[in-house]
Amino acid sequence: MFFPLGLVAVSSSVLRASPRLEEAGRSLGRGPLAVRLTVTLPLLAPGLAAAFCFVFLSAATELTAPCCSSRPACRTLATQFWAYAEEGASFGAAAPTRPR
Q1: Residues contacting residue 74 through CB under 8 Å, at least 6 positions apart
Q2: Are residues 48 and 10 in contact, defined by beta-carbon separation less than 8 angstroms?
Q3: Tens of pLDDT along the chain (100 residues)?
Q4: Angular region, 29: left φ>0, alpha ψ -120 to 50, beta rest
Q5: Distances (CA, A) of 31 to 15, 53, 54, 55, 97
Q6: pTM score > 0.85 for this model?
């Protein structure tokens, strides 16, 4: 369900990374693993971070799947976020008012 969100962010990062940079790292005498760790991974890091954020936010705020597939008393991360959002909406009503 959340795989396409992560895939889009990572694939755009992979497409932007030039293969010539890996070739340059290999021509300097580094092994394939060292080139992947020192050249490719830093190029992919922003896309990986964005994919993690997209998937985490989507999974954390997904309410329909846990509500439909769990017991009524079951507390999941999504139902807790929903409860906190509802509590946050009533902060204005709970605030003290100034007498006029």
Answers
A1: 66
A2: yes
A3: 788 888 988 998 888 888 898 899 899 988 989 998 999 999 999 999 999 999 888 877 776 666 666 666 777 776 676 677 666 655 555 556 666 6
A4: left
A5: 22, 31, 33, 33, 68
A6: no
